[in-house]
Amino acid sequence: MRAYGTQVVAGVRSGWGGADGSTTPTFDLVEQAVAHAGDIDLSLIFVEPYRVLDAGLEAIASGIHQLAIATCGVPPLDIVRLLRQAEGTNTTVFGPGSAGILVPGKVLLGIHEPQFFQPGSLGILSCSDALTAGVAQLLGRAGYGQSIVVSLGSEAIAGTSYEPWLEVLERDPNTEAILLVGQAGSGDEVAAADFIASDVGKPVFAYLAGLSLPPTRHNRATPHLTRSGADDSSTANKLAALSRAGVHCAPNMDRLPEIVRNILSQSPIQPAIPCDEAALSSD
Question: Which of 94, 198, 203, 240 is 20 to 30 A from 15, comparing alpha carbons?
């Protein structure tokens, strides 16, 4: 993140406060980090799943109102408790299983791999970080860069949903089209479809993995049972709801650039800026 220009002001690890060997000062407690650095915009949480609740509550108690939880496999009841506290303190939680936020060429708050992304006008909202980089790279090669990439989290219970970010991107002058990236068992694309049908006027595309999952399958990226075709968490039902809302859905990743190109051909969005040119323009 520091190489991308993000100000990483402190790290927290119990028992490692004051440790040498890093350009980032390390503290035992979040409140010590805040006392040292002042206001902190976001806490990026990498701890073990059973420590996420304590880490999140400590960050909120210290006045940090944006949390990005990169850890997967957090106990569901812990996430519920954390989200209740976040709701009462006006705190935004990305994740679990979130890579954070990326504005290509400008801002990196999280663990996205920026070499796969290019500046452009396509906003990506993702509930599957395993797919996001590949999708962005494929579209970038076709000439469609990204205005912003928001990782909502890859697990069934997540801190933020599609709807508020769809509203943000609908109003964003730098975003001319929106792409949803998801998978079976995570994200609520059915609720997103209702919102898109009533409140989104920009073109919306979707690629959801898992269409060929058997009726019962454990998804390794989301540690819970998914039942393909049995409920709203199945990819088939999600795609059906999105299609009814006017979303342009790709049956597989390879078809996505073609579908985007066909829909936007009469109103093309801003082309992607090559990586070397983007680096020059951000200096």
Answer: 94
Segment holding 142, helix H or strand E: none
- How far apart CA 202 and CA 121 sit, in angstroms, is 12
In CATH terms, the fold of domain 100-264 is Rossmann fold (3.40.50)
Distance between alpha carbon 42 and the CA centroid of its chain, in Å?
14
Contact present, 60 and 87 (Cβ < 8 Å): no
Q: For residue 4, what are the contacts with CB-CB under 8 A and spacing of at least 6?
A: 107, 108, 114
- Distance from the Cα of residue 110 to its chain's centroid: 9
The ranges assigned to domains in the chain are 2-94, 100-264
Do 100-264 and 2-94 have the same topology in CATH? Answer: yes
Q: In what order do the strands lie in the sheet with 204-209?
A: 107-110, 100-103, 146-151, 119-126, 177-183, 204-209, 248-250
pLDDT of res. 268: 57
CA separation, residue 140 to residues 53, 145, 158, 172, 258 (Å): 37, 5, 28, 20, 12
Chain-centroid distance of CA 120 in Å reads 17
Tokens standing for residue 157 = 């219970």
Per-residue pLDDT band for 249 (boundaries 50, 70, 90) equals very high
CATH class, 2-94 region:
alpha beta
Rounded to 5°, angle at Cα 55 from 49 and 56: 100
